[in-house]
Amino acid sequence: MPITRDEFNKGRTRNTVKEQIEILLENNKDKAYTFQEISDYVFGKAKNFGEAILKVIANSLILENALYELIKEGKIEAKDVKTPYGKEVYYAWKLKNT
């Protein structure tokens, strides 16, 4: 898989999943995201059925673990939020005063 010139110059490839989540939530402290929204940010939206299956596997193995680690480290928080469709878990950067 090709990498960008910036990645080449830095001597590294994309950020880890955990780092990508940190970047998203820290840079958007005034917002909270659902699991699916974070998944779409990290892995992109599936273009076909095969990608959708791989994304489900990646979500359950990688994304859930990264979110759990960030919560455990006290960097992000998760909260059940009532929506028109029922309760859904949202994730947000943990603010210092909370």
Describe the model.
α2 (17-27) crosses α4. β2 (76-83) and β3 form a beta hairpin. It is built from 4 helices and 3 strands, in the order ααβααββ. It has helices spanning 5-10, 17-27, 35-43, 49-72; strands spanning 33-34, 76-83, 86-93. A 3-stranded antiparallel sheet has the order 1-3-2. With 98 residues, it is α+β, with helices and mostly antiparallel strands. Helices cover 51% and strands 18% of the residues. It has a single domain (5-93), classed as Arc Repressor Mutant, subunit A (Orthogonal Bundle).
Q: C-alpha Rg, in Å?
A: 15 Å
Known CATH architecture: Orthogonal Bundle
Predict the CATH topology: Arc Repressor Mutant, subunit A
Listing every helix as H and every strand as E from the N terminus to the C terminus, the arrangement reads: HHEHHEE
Please report which band the strand proportion falls in: under 5%, 5-15%, 15-25%, 25-35%, 35-45% or over 45%: 15-25%
Number of helices: 4
